Amino acid sequence: MKKLSNACLYSANADFIEQLYEAYLSDPDSVDADWRQYFDALRADDHLRQEIPHGPVREKFARLARQRPAPATTAGSAPLSPQQSAHKQVSVLQLINAYRFRGHRQAELDPIKQYQRPNVPELEPGFHGLSEADLDTEFNTGSLVAPDSLKLRDILEQVRATYCGPIGAEYMHINETEQKRWIQKRLEGSRATPQYNREQKHRIIGRLTAAKALEEYLHNKYVGQKRFSLEGGESLIPLLDNIVQRGGRADLHEIVIGMAHRGRLNVLVNILGKMPSELFGEFEGKQPENNNGSGDVKYHLGYSSDIAVDNGALHLTLAFNPSHLEIIDPVVEGSVRARQDRRRDVERNQVLPLLIHGDAALAGQGVVMETLNLSQTRGYSTGGTIHVVINNQIGFTTSDPLDSRSTLYCTDVAKMIQAPILHVNGDDPEAVVFAAEFALDYRTEFNKDVVIDLVCYRRHGHSEADEPAATQPVMYRKIRNHTDAHRQYSDRLIREGTFSKEDIQMLEDDYIKALEENQPVSAPLISKAQREYLVNFEPFKNHRWDEPVDTSLDRDTIARLTESFTRVPEDFQLHKTVEKIIHARRQMGQDEQPFDWGYAEMLAYASLLDAGYPIRISGQDSARGTFFHRHSVIHNQENGDTYLPLQHLKAEQPSFLIINSILSEEAVLAFEYGYSSSQPNGLVMWEAQFGDFANGAQVVIDQFISSSEAKWDRYSGLVMLLPHGYDGQGPEHSSARLERYLQLCAEDNMQVCFPSTAAQMFHMLRRQVLRPYRKPLIVMSPKSLLRHKLSTSTLSDITDHGFQLVIDEIDDIDKHKVRRLLICSGKVYYDLLDARRDNDIDNIAIARIEQLYPFPKRELSELVASYPNVEDVVWVQEEPRNQGACAYLLESLNLFGSLNNNQQLLIIARPYSASPAVGSPSRHLEQQRQLVQEALLLEAQESSDDKARKSA
């Protein structure tokens, strides 16, 4: 800590000191520790209180100042008055602050110097009323990490070196004083200029050589093939290498990396240790041995390895990634959260998420903002992410920054979470490594996100087949004439005598030799690292979806669990409606009344927790339930406290977390997918507020949920609850777009279920976890059925049954009399059932398909065959004919041979429509009435619209 200098205690500094004292009164931590101690003592001496005037303080400083000489003035200049001197001192502090705020605008960031640095008036002394005559005057340095007082020229030299060199820092947007002081100490104390020894420089040039040599080797060996070269941004490799090695010393156990195409192959080989022969085989078109699916291009593939670090092994994972660039961000965050939870890493310091972005994608894709918005929330925090931007200063093929964003920097979006941002010149590898050290240490200290903007360029086009000069002639003329970072740094090391030219050449020769001999060229790999906490899906492979599993519960277990999840603390004041719901659930557990969907869910969750399976549920109103049915979190009406009964089933139990998510579908669903892909031994669920809200997450569904196993051999047991049903609530609150999921179904890649009773929901959720089978489960979940009297169940449905793929007619109908068999799913079943009973129809049966995919061919065939005289088999759906399950069922029923030659398949649905549903409640009811009448062969009644047309 600096000792408070007597030089500042003269009357000319009274205004400055009063400003400090006012800041101290507002927040003692906002001033330096030495000033804080002085003010503490001052208040103790004078018995000052916060609300009294500052006059006594000013008088005390005046007395002190009269005992000390006035500051020296520049030779030949007239003495300054106390007021002038005070004004100059304040101006110096403002100048220091100007560099902290805006010094980055004049930092030397652009390797190819294509943009002229702007003139920033606030960085000139004259802007603040300071002149050359003041350069040799000593001023107090305030909170600058420096001696208490310095000449103005020395202050200027320090702030320019710190903030206008190869690193441009943005951090003054951060509210927390502690974090800003930490950053200032780190940057200003070293002038943002590292002092590395020979060993450290050897590692940097070694990794830089690896980055360059691999790209040149691939460029010459596989001419014209796409690889999305790292050339121009080679400093990424020493940056990542430093984080890996320092991460090991910081007691990290895992790093999960997400990145798109640019430089991915280089990272795989030089950081994760992918064998050169594997990469070469992919260039030569060889299929990986462990992937029997469709596979993917080489620059989408992931990898994992264990790297030797100082304290043992560090597990590295590079996530598989589609071409949708930033969509991998929340997937990585979810995977990291699962790994932290598995390790019981409540401090979130053992597993690090590291995201590598492109500049245009970072600024352009909304999922970035959504992911940042998740970062500090309770259910999604991972303890801070290190973000690295490979800033090529050009988006995709031809996009100029003026066309790719509306912000000054591509990283401005990170300011929304007050992340510090270091812009660093990619041609200065030592500055890049310094930024890496800063980022990891900041994340370790504060568990907050931090951004490194690696300002570089792209040596080739978007891919190696492009000719970028056609659209960017000036930029690529500069690039063609530009000396690369490896050559610049090598020359620098040779000039300073650290290495010889022969030393540098030997590094490259040794690297190429290792490539050709198929040796690892990363840091040393560890083949027998500890695997206790790593993801293991092996027990779930090679199992079928139709393997039997017992999902029933006995009555004693039901009673015990019900008592546990309906228990409320004695002093807890419940809302009257919630109190009635909990009381009803106690009766349901005793079989005193039929149980509803809310009880079915709670009992399913309790039973899985009791069996040792953790549960994680998220959605925009999941804790209560969008339709006021779940109430897994209850609220004290007196003080707002919350209580989760499912967290208090017994002393030792797995975690139960249910989260009301941010108002996002894409990032949240991707996060939950990532979590499920790293947590095979639990139930992970995402619930849409309404089913078609999942439209906003279609990329996640297409690129990960439906196809990750086929492309990458990656598994997930994620459950998606999508409220679905035509209740007259309009186009956006009716359809979960069932047809889209069925269109994506193939190769048993996922499950699509449409449960129609509370017991079916119970068995379906338990089946998802208890089977040694992990595939995503898409559920058309109910809305109005949550309280429908006919969709309830009894305890015997739990104790005596399991999940039924197909449900036959439930009324006592003679199957020999049945001429028409209606088959449906979901809510429309109850509309049909009510109408049939009302009209005493006994020759039409109604059956339900509860699992649409994988299609229950045998079960449906047996059901149809049990009706010997059926002539018409009719698929009935609420959705328009061009939507819903219609097209899928037409193909499935015919291909799977569920019908015999004497039967015809008919379709009853709403008319073809561009919109999922009508907006008028009356039109909805009319459509529903007509649909039911047609299905049951009832005499059509004229609608009011028909009558009006006829009368007209």
From TrEMBL:
The reactions it catalyses are:
N(6)-[(R)-lipoyl]-L-lysyl-[protein] + 2-oxoglutarate + H(+) = N(6)-[(R)-S(8)-succinyldihydrolipoyl]-L-lysyl-[protein] + CO2
Cofactor(s), by name: thiamine diphosphate
Give TM regions: none
Cited InterPro entries: 2-oxogl_dehyd_N, 2oxoglutarate_DH_E1, DH_E1, KGD_C_sf, ODO-1/KGD_C, THDP-binding, Transketolase-like_Pyr-bd
Q: Does the keyword section mention Disulfide bond?
A: no
Q: Would the keyword ATP-binding turn up in this protein's UniProt record? A: no
Q: Which residues form a coiled coil?
A: none
Renumbered to this chain, region (Disordered) spans 66-86
Q: Which GO terms describe its molecular function?
A: oxoglutarate dehydrogenase (succinyl-transferring) activity; thiamine pyrophosphate binding
What Gene Ontology terms describe where this protein resides (cellular component)?
cytosol; oxoglutarate dehydrogenase complex
Bias-annotated ranges (Polar residues): 74-86
The source's superkingdom equals Bacteria
| Enzyme class name | oxidoreductase
Question: Which GO terms fall under biological process for this protein?
Answer: glycolytic process; tricarboxylic acid cycle
A Pfam cross-reference name: OxoGdeHyase_C
What EC number(s) would the UniProt record show?
1.2.4.2
Annotated ranges, domain Transketolase-like pyrimidine-binding? 595-788
- SUPFAM superfamilies recorded: Thiamin diphosphate-binding fold (THDP-binding) (SSF52518)
Q: NCBIfam families annotated for this entry? A: 2oxo_dh_E1, PRK09404.1, PRK12270.1
Question: What is known about what this protein does?
Answer: E1 component of the 2-oxoglutarate dehydrogenase (OGDH) complex which catalyzes the decarboxylation of 2-oxoglutarate, the first step in the conversion of 2-oxoglutarate to succinyl-CoA and CO(2).
Subunit comment: Homodimer. Part of the 2-oxoglutarate dehydrogenase (OGDH) complex composed of E1 (2-oxoglutarate dehydrogenase), E2 (dihydrolipoamide succinyltransferase) and E3 (dihydrolipoamide dehydrogenase); the complex contains multiple copies of the three enzymatic components (E1, E2 and E3).
Similarity remark: Belongs to the alpha-ketoglutarate dehydrogenase family.
Recorded protein name is 2-oxoglutarate dehydrogenase E1 component
